[in-house]
Design goal:
There is one protein chain. By secondary structure, the protein is mainly alpha-helical. The protein has one domain. Helix content is 68%, strand content 6%. It is built from two helices and two strands, in the order αββα. A hairpin with a 2-residue loop joins strand 1 and strand 2. Helix 1 runs antiparallel to helix 2.
Length: 71
C-alpha cells in the first residue's frame, strides 16, 4: 500500500467520523436531545461527541497536510 492510498483511506475515515460526530454534536448542543436515545455522556460538562469531532477534525487536517506534502 502506498502512502498516498493510505492517506486517502484515512481521509475518508476522518470525513465519515466528522459527519457522524457532527450529527451527534448538533443533536446535543442545538436540539438539546440525545440522538442515541439516552446513550450520550459528558466529559467535564461537554458532550463526548464534541471531543470526538475535534479529534476527527485534527486527524483530517493532519491527513490533508500529509497529502499535500511534496515528499
Amino acid at each position: 500500500m502506498t502512502k498516498t492510498l493510505a492517506l486517502k483511506i484515512l481521509l475518508a475515515i476522518t470525513i465519515a467520523g466528522m459527519l457522524f460526530s457532527g450529527y451527534l454534536s448538533y443533536g446535543e448542543l442545538v436540539q438539546r436531545a440525545c440522538p442515541l436515545a439516552g446513550a450520550c455522556t459528558t466529559v467535564v460538562g461537554v458532550p463526548a461527541c464534541v471531543y470526538g469531532f475535534v479529534m476527527y477534525f485534527a486527524a483530517f487536517i493532519v491527513t490533508l497536510l500529509g497529502l499535500n506534502s511534496k515528499k
